[in-house]
Amino acid sequence: MKRLKKIVAIGPESTGKSTLCKQLANHYNTGWVKEYAREFITAHGEYSYEDLLIIAKGQVELEDEAALRNEVSGVRYQVSAKSYQLSANGSALFIDTDMHVMQVWCEFVYNRCHNWILSQIAAREYDGYLLCNIDLPWEQDGMREYPDKKVREKLYHFYKEMMINQSVPWVEISGNNEERMEAAVRFTDSL
């Protein structure tokens, strides 16, 4: 049996993370995990530092539910102690946002981060990261906060520094949607 590969799209807002996860899930005929923050902010509007912990826990819950369901797009799998085992040819789960994003959000906005988020970064296992670059045009969707290019560059460098300083394989994703998809598929296939 092959282990379910968990691949996370991270990066600043408006960098195509959701679009890429959805496209990859369609390409591989598998599932993807949406960003919980969208659901939370749609329901509650503004957020506080304490809300970021709620959002982080909601994100983890969405991810765990997707991984533990009896099916991932029609492929049944069994759960072992440390990993998710597929009874078919293996599959991937694409995840829009993880605790690295929550850490950057906490630290950038509030200059501190919840210990629970930091402990989740250390405890959770992933197979790869897709670091989405800021080279797509920024689009306002009613929830996004940082249209300024200098701020977006600063945020991108925070994410890149995180990726450089951890051991999970990662790739920068840039270019138009087609180029991003091609790079993400090459990377995913290599895993």
Description:
The protein is of the alpha/beta class and 191 residues long. Helix content is 48%, strand content 18%. It has helices spanning 17-28, 36-44, 49-68, 99-110, 115-123, 149-164, 177-190; strands spanning 2-3, 5-10, 31-33, 71-72, 75-79, 84-86, 92-96, 128-132, 170-173. The strands form 2 sheets. The chain has a 5-stranded parallel β-sheet, sandwiched between helices. A 4-stranded antiparallel β-sheet has the order 1-6-5-4, with helices on one face. Strand 8, helix 6 (149-164) and strand 9 (170-173) form a beta-alpha-beta unit. The radius of gyration is 16 Å and the shape is globular. The relative contact order is 0.23. Residues 70-90 have low confidence and may be disordered.
How much of the sequence lies in strands comes to: 15-25%
Largest sheet: 5 strands, parallel
Which class best fits the helix and strand makeup? alpha/beta
C-alpha termini separation: 15 Å
Number of helices: 7
What fraction, in percent, of the residue positions are helical?
40-55%
Q: Give a count of the beta strands, DSSP E runs of length 2 or more.
A: 9
Uncertain residue ranges: 70-90
Could you give the order of strands across the largest sheet? 3-7-2-8-9
How much is the radius of gyration in Å?
A: 16 Å
Question: What's the shape?
Answer: globular
Q: What's the mean pLDDT score?
A: 85
Strand/helix succession: EEHEHHEEEEHHEHEH
Could you list some keywords that capture this structure?
five-stranded parallel β-sheet; 9 strands; 191 residues; four-stranded antiparallel β-sheet; globular; single chain
